[in-house]
Amino acid sequence: MNRQLLRSQLERHEGLRLEPYKDTVGKLTIGYGRNIEDNGISRDEADFMLDNDIDSIESELRRLPAYNALCASRQTVIANMAFNMGVPTLLQFRKMWAAIDSMDWARAAAEMMDSRWARQVGNRAVELSEIMRSGEVSGV
Prior knowledge:
The chain is mainly alpha-helical. It has 10 helices and 3 strands, in the order αβββααααααααα.
């Protein structure tokens, strides 16, 4: 088989769609005709997408002076939250950000826990708020 010829044909015949869509038989599809409903993705593809998503989140967060002033473990907490809810929603945690600005880590952690997000994610919020409070990661 001529792999390059096949790739060229598939790119032309399938077309590139970067957003999920339903194909002609109603299957959820993305990319160059990848039927993700029946085929899913591989672990390598999932890891690749995760790395790209982390890069994107970090790029957005690097625009925030408060984020840049944090130690690496607290930056990781903020990045984890941003990954989960998106940066615009994270920016709505005004009391948490005010506590971060004043380096009141206990209050920042408490503000994290006093949120709908914490009630939705449960143990994730407990773990992340403890890292925010202490600045240290344990058990990883």
